Sequence to fold (93 residues):
Amino acid sequence: MDFIFHEKQEENMDDSGFFSIQVICNALKFWGLEVIHFNNPEYQKLGIDPINERSFICNYKQHWFTIRKFGKHWFNLNSLLSYFATLSYVIIL
Fold:
């Protein structure tokens, strides 16, 4: 049983602590949220304007971070930064 658990855990997390997209999706399902990949045809069909969204989960070089809209301003909430970086609409789009 330990082997099966360990094998399953390796599929979802590596030694650096990086979690797979499946872990992110399952965590968000708990809150009734769904992950739709930005380049997915399903997302394109919905006709969603990214400017009207409130947040995005991003991955860069196997590091997850969030960009979030507070009021009219977007912030990079990357835990590797020592500050919350303000983003412009040009960067987001």
